[in-house]
């Protein structure tokens, strides 16, 4: 269902959503940053923190089996966990696999050695490599009993660190079982449930069904329900809390070209005026700042290649984005990156007239 993006004015600011508790962890504001493979790395998390507004930030999802293999080889920890030990809290790490003992072992390491705030289990990823090849992610929505075993073992291994789960509505539209799965998740001891409003077969097509997310809430007795899907403006976040029976929201893909979205949404939920969008000049400077952080982490050569996808995100939806993407997709050096940004990144009308 689509959102009504109209907002109402109030004489006095009034918070529209209360903080949530994930175990003993208070999440305020109740806006979570989703784990996204290939994107929510250390530099991107820094950018989100600089803007503020995210009550809980997550790393990229970590393959539990790969983590154990690295440990057995006495190799370094997974690259996706770089910086986690010393990173500001709260911080969630999402793990995936289909073997309860393996997930429990990794969860225990994350809770004790890394001291993360939340261990999240991925039951929502629809990507073929995770589902069909590894029988993990959203594939497990067809196996509620195994999901329960996984959660029970991870909860026991991580105690007292809270364990959460992220799911989709079901595997396919004719096999939507989110209400049943939600009760399994809560019964197995999870501290919160996030639901993306599409099925695995939907991938990211169509609209997220928030009515079906909301329908889950009456079946949860003690844990918060976090809704996810299509939240790309502060107005839509406000609408989600006003129209649906949820406790919190999770923002995913929309933040990749608007990392300030969390701060804008948080202001809206506090009943405060939503700040103006950064100008294109400010967005260009933000992208360059992001690029410097990526290069500090990965080095100039690898950092330049990795930044290409982020740069495309920053330009998304702007006039001239297609031309910029065509050129930035081929850069391999800092000099090339800077030259392409200078010449092709979308500009404000005032900048364009001055050049």
Automatic annotation (TrEMBL):
CDD domains per record: DUS_like_FMN (cd02801)
UniProt xrefs under Pfam families: Dus
Molecular function GO labels: flavin adenine dinucleotide binding; tRNA binding; tRNA dihydrouridine synthase activity
UniProt xrefs under Gene3D superfamilies: Aldolase class I (3.20.20.70), Putative flavin oxidoreducatase, domain 2 (1.10.1200.80)
Catalytic-site annotation from UniProt: 125 (proton donor)
Function comment: Catalyzes the synthesis of 5,6-dihydrouridine (D), a modified base found in the D-loop of most tRNAs, via the reduction of the C5-C6 double bond in target uridines.
InterPro entries (alphabetical): Aldolase_TIM (IPR013785), DUS-like_FMN-bd (IPR035587), DUS_fam (IPR001269), DusB-like (IPR004652), tRNA-dHydroUridine_Synthase_C (IPR024036), tRNA_hU_synthase_CS (IPR018517)
Amino-acid positions noted as binding FMN in the UniProt annotation, renumbered to this chain: 35-37, 94, 166, 196, 252-253
Catalytic activity: a 5,6-dihydrouridine in tRNA + NAD(+) = a uridine in tRNA + NADH + H(+); a 5,6-dihydrouridine in tRNA + NADP(+) = a uridine in tRNA + NADPH + H(+)
Domain DUS-like FMN-binding: 33-342
Family matches, as SUPFAM superfamilies: FMN-linked oxidoreductases
Name assigned to this protein: tRNA-dihydrouridine synthase
Membership in a protein family: Belongs to the dus family.
Cofactor(s) listed: FMN
Keywords: Flavoprotein, FMN, NADP, Nucleotide-binding, Oxidoreductase, RNA-binding, tRNA processing, tRNA-binding
Organism: Aeoliella mucimassa
Enzyme Commission number, as recorded: 1.3.1.-
Domain of life: Bacteria
């Amino acid at each position: 269902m689509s959102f009504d993006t109209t907002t109402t004015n109030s004489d006095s600011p009034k918070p529209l959503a209360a903080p949530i508790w994930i175990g003993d962890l208070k999440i305020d504001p109740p806006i979570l940053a989703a784990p996204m493979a290939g994107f929510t790395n250390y530099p991107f998390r820094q950018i989100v923190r600089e803007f503020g507004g995210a009550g809980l930030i997550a790393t990229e999802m970590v393959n539990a089996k790969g983590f154990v293999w690295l440990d057995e080889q006495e190799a370094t920890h997974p690259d996706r966990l770089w910086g986690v030990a010393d990173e500001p809290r709260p911080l969630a790490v999402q793990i995936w696999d289909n073997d309860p003992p393996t997930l429990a072992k990794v969860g225990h390491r994350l809770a004790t050695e890394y001291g993360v705030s939340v261990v999240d289990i991925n039951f929502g990823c629809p990507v073929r490599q995770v589902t069909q090849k590894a029988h993990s992610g959203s594939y497990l929505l067809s196996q509620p009993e195994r999901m329960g075993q996984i959660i029970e073992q991870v909860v026991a291994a991580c105690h007292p660190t809270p364990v959460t789960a992220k799911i989709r509505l079901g595997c396919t539209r004719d096999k939507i079982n989110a209400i049943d799965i939600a009760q399994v998740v809560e019964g197995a001891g999870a501290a919160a449930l996030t639901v993306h409003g599409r099925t695995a077969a939907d991938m990211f097509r169509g609209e997220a069904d928030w009515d079906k997310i909301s329908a889950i809430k009456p079946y949860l007795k003690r844990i918060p329900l976090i809704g996810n899907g299509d939240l790309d403006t502060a107005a839509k976040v406000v609408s989600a809390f006003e129209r649906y029976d949820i406790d919190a929201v999770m923002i995913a893909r929309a933040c990749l070209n608007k990392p300030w979205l969390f701060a804008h949404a948080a202001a809206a939920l506090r009943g405060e005026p939503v700040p103006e969008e950064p100008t294109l000049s400010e967005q260009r400077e933000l992208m360059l700042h992001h690029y410097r952080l990526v290069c500090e982490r990965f080095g100039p050569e690898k950092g330049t290649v990795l930044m290409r996808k982020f740069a495309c995100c920053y330009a998304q939806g702007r006039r001239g984005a297609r031309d910029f993407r065509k050129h930035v997709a081929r850069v391999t050096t800092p000099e090339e990156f800077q030259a392409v940004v200078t010449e092709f990144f979308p500009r404000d009308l005032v900048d364009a007239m001055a050049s």
